[in-house]
Write a structure and sequence with these properties.
There is one protein chain. By secondary structure, this protein is mostly helical. Among the domains are: about 70 residues, no CATH class; about 140 residues, no CATH class. It has a four-stranded antiparallel beta sheet with strand order 1-3-2-5, with no helix packed on it. A two-stranded antiparallel sheet has the order 4-6. α3 runs parallel beside α7, α11 packs across α12 and α12 packs across α16. The termini are far apart. About 35% of the residues are buried.
């Protein structure tokens, strides 16, 4: 022990420990002078920790440390704790237990079967009202880079992946209960609509989990997410949603509602546009693969290897030019822009080469699942299956309608649109509804980095830094001198900003019925936030363009 204490309080050990602390806090150590560190250096001196209001460069011995004004960052706890997102697992669990007791028609069974609807519409908004919104929730960066196939990357989305089999199991148990207890359904005619509504809200919560999975780069995650959207009769969502991320806030986006557009006008365009975009994208990909195959065959027969590679690069450039031309389109109506594009000239490609097999097999799988439910459980189960899918699709369309209502990107003089910024999405700062939906309501951060796991999303972001001018590096201080501090003023754009929040004092689960049922009240409440967000979007986009 005495030997250990001597090593612990030795100058060399304290120097190494302080250097490790600096690196752990995210403050890189930069060597200023050419001389090496010695045990007698002044690095082991204790520097008082104060809240920084400006950017400062601190020189301690031969070490330079930059301190930037920013809000307190979220720290990953060292102790294991139950994630708040586990609250979503209550929905399918309650339905499974209630379905087992449906034949008894007791009060407990009906309470469990109605629990998802009550939880979504009543309990969660009340809890969020009582706890209040989150004022500051900065985004996190991963502790270390995770490969798409690494176990850590798979574990980052284990909870959403766990929800999908639980929901499918609960659905099968509800279908079985609806066929095994016909007397209970006959005696209580409102039980079947109750099952539809409750399973619909379970599917709505599952859409948050499935949305998280289709953005993953892990093949298992994407397969589970695709299976879930096929189960809920929305197999075209994965492909159309990636289209939405690319064209958000433009006339080509079927998920961006115009200001003043009621939901009843938005819903058909959202549903039909999702289907049309998915089929169109696959047709274009099939045409591109056919052209590439023909080009390779032509190059292999008449050209050398280098010429074939150059031909492939030219084909990629042509495909990129076609996508840029699509971005310059003025049509806002998806039906007018997308459907004719799928029926344009095929460039003499055979019809079999242009079949979108992904969407064809997806539609066949959806019909096969419905036929299986009918054969195994009967017509009552099919009613629950289709009714729940319809309700979840409607709730998802309302959510997309509210999150992007009225937000748009302006067109630049060269024909392109402004870059994507956090001001193209509304957000919600309430904890429990975000935990229920796997933080999909931190929507701005999600659009800025779609592959980021849900645990790392936040409400605050840092704008682009202005171009820095030439700066002189002060001379390093000696070991006997006090640390030299050079004050540098911070520009206003360097401070952390908060993403736009839709009706900050009202939970998002309360906003959805307002947008669905009362358009005049919705327009009156939300239009001021839309105008402010569009102004900030244009201003922030100009900052990004000036930086680049």
């Amino acid at each position: 022990p005495i030997k250990y204490l001597k090593q612990l309080f030795s100058p060399c050990h304290r120097t190494r420990m302080l250097a490790n602390v600096h690196v752990a806090r995210g403050c890189p150590l930069k060597r200023v002078g050419s001389s090496s560190l010695t045990p007698h250096d002044s690095l082991h001196r204790r520097v008082p920790r104060t809240r920084c209001v400006q950017t400062r460069t601190v020189h301690i011995g031969h070490i330079e440390r930059s301190v930037v004004d920013k809000p307190e960052e979220r720290k990953r706890g060292s102790k294991w704790s139950i994630p708040a997102e586990c609250i979503a697992l209550i929905y399918p669990t309650a339905m499974s237990i209630g379905a087992l007791q449906l034949g008894l028609t007791n009060t407990a069974s009906l309470a469990l079967l109605s629990f998802p609807a009550l939880m979504f519409l009543v309990i969660t908004p009340i809890v969020d009202f009582l706890t209040g919104p989150i004022k500051q929730h900065p985004a996190m960066q991963p502790v270390k880079p995770m490969g798409p196939g690494s176990p850590a990357y798979f574990a980052s989305r284990i909870l959403p992946a766990l929800y999908i089999p639980l929901h499918i199991t609960a659905s099968l148990m509800v279908y079985w209960a609806s066929s095994a207890a016909p007397l209970a359904l006959a005696g209580c005619p409102w039980v079947l609509p109750l099952l539809m509504v409750s399973m619909g809200f379970c599917a709505t919560v599952g859409k948050g989990a499935g949305h998280e999975l289709i953005h993953s780069r892990h093949a298992v995650h994407r397969a589970i997410g695709d299976l879930y959207f096929l189960w809920t009769w929305h197999g075209s969502y994965a492909r159309s949603h990636h289209h939405h991320h690319r064209y958000v806030g433009t006339p080509l986006d079927h998920s961006s509602a115009k200001q003043g557009e009621p939901f009843l006008h938005f819903w058909p365009r959202y549903v039909l546009g999702s289907w049309a975009i998915a089929w169109q994208d696959e047709v274009q990909e099939a045409r591109g693969r056919w052209k590439q195959k023909q080009r390779r065959a032509h190059c292999a027969g008449k050209l050398g290897t280098n010429d074939a590679a150059s031909a492939r690069s030219e084909g990629q450039q042509q495909q990129q030019q076609q996508q840029e031309e699509m971005m310059r389109s003025d049509a806002f109506d998806v039906g007018a822009e997308v459907l004719p594009a799928a029926s344009r000239g095929t460039d003499q490609a055979p019809l079999a080469a242009l079949i979108p097999w992904g969407q064809v097999t997806g539609t066949a799988a959806q019909m096969g699942i419905t036929a299986m439910v009918y054969l195994l459980f009967g017509p009552a189960a099919v009613q629950v299956h289709i009714g729940a899918a319809f309700l979840s699709l409607t709730m998802q369309s309302v959510a997309d309608y509210a999150l992007h209502y009225g937000l748009k990107r302006s067109r630049l003089p060269d024909g392109r649109y402004e870059p994507v910024t956090p001001y193209l999405s509304f957000n919600s700062g309430f904890k429990w509804e975000n935990s229920t939906m796997h933080t999909v309501l931190y929507h701005s951060d999600h659009h800025m980095s779609a592959a980021k796991p849900y645990k790392d999303l936040g409400l605050t972001f840092k704008p682009p830094n202005p171009a820095s001018g030439p700066s002189s590096t002060p001379a390093p201080s000696s070991g006997s001198e006090k640390p030299h501090v050079e004050e540098q003023p911070v520009c206003q754009s360097q401070a952390f900003r908060q993403a736009p929040v839709l009706l900050p004092n009202i939970p998002f689960f309360v906003i959805l019925p307002i947008a669905l049922l009362c358009p005049p009240l919705w327009f009156r409440m939300v239009d001021p936030f839309v105008e402010s967000a569009n102004h900030n979007q244009h201003k922030h986009a100009q900052e990004v363009l000036s930086k680049t």
